[in-house]
Amino acid sequence: MRRVLIVLALAGCVAQPPVPRAPAAAAEPRAVTLYRDAVTARFSDGSLCVAVRPGRAADWTARLAGCPHLWTVAVRGADRTARRPLAPGGGRVVLTPPGGAPSGWGGGAPTS
User: Fold this and answer.
1) Taking a C-beta distance cutoff of 8 angstroms, is the pair 61, 39 a contact?
2) By CB atoms within 10 Å of each CB, which of 9, 14, 86, 104 scores lowest?
3) How far apart are CA 60 and CA 83, in angstroms?
4) Which of 89, 97, 90, 93 is nearest to 77 (CA)?
5) pLDDT tens digit sequence for 52-110
6) Residue 64 contacts by C-beta under 8 Å, 6 or more apart in sequence?
């Protein structure tokens, strides 16, 4: 009985294979929000990614993190509003996929 319990305990420690996800190249940004110190992007595959502003830079560039998409984010001009949802078009925030064409996001009314 003791051996069975040991085997069961060790079986619980075995690493599970990762859950298959949609290829990163197939997903597109659907919603982009500019915050004082970050940008979030919600993708068509449901991923929510974030890029954090380095220091106090007004214009900054960072890579999305917390998701499978390795897109680059470039922001022109710091924003003093707490939260600003952006619309496709414009160039305040530019998202660029690896080896792909950039997409600009801008406009949007600030929210607190």
Assistant:
1) no
2) 14
3) 17
4) 93
5) 999 988 999 999 999 999 999 999 987 788 899 999 998 899 999 999 999 999 986 66
6) 41, 49, 50, 51, 70, 71, 72, 73, 95
Using a 10 angstrom Cβ sphere, with 0-12 exposed, 13-18 middle and 19 or more buried, the burial of residue 111 is exposed
* Token pair for 99: 């080896």
Q: Which residues lie across from 96 on neighbouring strands? A: 72
Instruction: Please name the amino acid found at residue 43.
Output: F
Could you give the C-alpha distances from 27 to 12, 47, 52, in angstroms and in order?
34, 9, 21
Question: What does the DSSP assignment read for the chain?
Answer: -HHHHHHHHHHTTSPPPPPP---GGG--EEEEEEESSEEEEEETTS-EEEEEPPTT-SSEEEE-BSSS---EEEE-S---SSEEEEEEEEEEEEEE-TTS--EEEE----B-
pLDDT of residue 90: 85
